[in-house]
Amino acid sequence: MYQVKNFTDSKNVKKIAQISNFTDNDDVKILSEMGPFQVVEYQRDLSVFPDSAMTAYFCSQMNVRKRQLVCEMSNSQVTIQAGAMQWMLGNVNATTGIKGVGDLFGKAIRGKVTGESAIKPEYTGSGMLVLEPTYKHLILMDAADWGGSVVLDDGLFLACDSSLKHKAVMRSNFSSAVAGSEGLFNLSLNGKGVFCIEADAPKEELVEIILDNDVVKIDGNYAIAWSSSLNFTVERSGKSLIGSAASGEGLVNVYRGTGKVLMMPPAGMPNL
Q1: Would you give the distance in Å from CA 229 to the centre of its chain?
Q2: Which helix (H) or strand (E) holds 68?
Q3: What is the pLDDT of residues 46-74, one digit of tens each?
Q4: In whole angstroms, what separates CA 117 from the centre of its chain?
Q5: What are phi and psi of 71, to 5 degrees?
Q6: Domain segments of the chain: what residues?
Q7: CA 192, CA 163: separation in Å to the nearest integer?
Q8: pLDDT tens digits for 10-20?
Q9: What pLDDT sits at residue 109?
Q10: What is the widest separation between alpha-carbon atoms in the chain?
Q11: Measured between alpha carbons, how far is 93 from 109 in angstroms, rounded to an integer?
Q12: What pLDDT sits at residue 162?
């Protein structure tokens, strides 16, 4: 069985490509679709040897599976993490997305302070773009569900509509960032569009907290995304050093205001 893909080439001539044994394979399951993105999961790892067969079997039973992000390009433009592309089909072209020396300098600074790649390639055209497989969980989200502006924890970004603008946002207080284990800056996505993150926990295990002029305090780096409208700081868990010592928690991540926080508590638990 063939999967038929229609696209136009660089001369605007319509082309038809046939893809067999990819998403139509009975070992491949489409987990989610949103915007130009599609998350596929391999139910079993069939490329194994006798010494690795048992591990592959139990990995499949415990939801440790390879996943890939597929980008359906229809005269659209997507931005991905540097080095994430595996293969592409049709009239799809990569650019640096740099719009002058000033833009290059700004992206270099943003990449340095957030820990993300300085230059994220932008792919445009008509066809298909497939990213490298990963054992992490690929989660699709719409920026509109975050009021058009969301902040991501370090290292989670994988891909997004190029209509979303990238920005480095700074902590509210410098001293707490230095004292805590977090960096001073985080990556923020702003505008309209869909984005994909790589998380250590599946969507089914994520905890969503809606704040209405309220506060949530989290001991550890369990928050993976939060609304840009929230005031994010790192503070002592108690009002005093003695109180913090008595609680045994020390420093906690604090989110204040009105907005949303997405957590993945199970990912921080030790494996038995």
Answers
A1: 20
A2: strand 67-80
A3: 888 999 999 989 998 999 999 999 999 88
A4: 13
A5: -110, 115
A6: 2-202
A7: 6
A8: 667 677 778 88
A9: 52
A10: 72
A11: 26
A12: 94
Q: How confident is the model at residue 27 (pLDDT cuts 50, 70, 90)?
A: very high
> Tokens 């497989």 appear where?
133
- Whose tokens are 């989290």? That residue is 218
Residues in the chain: 272
HEC letters along 207-246: EEEEEEEEEEEECCCCEEEEECCCEEEEEECCCCHHHHHH
Tokens of 186: 């985080």
Q: What angle do CA 40, 42, 45 make, to 5 degrees?
A: 160
Strand partners, 248: none
The label of the residue with tokens 């230095």 reads 178
CA separation (Å) from 10 to 15, 19, 78, 135? 11, 21, 18, 35
Q: Which amino acid is at 168?
A: A
Tokens standing for 37? Answer: 């993105």
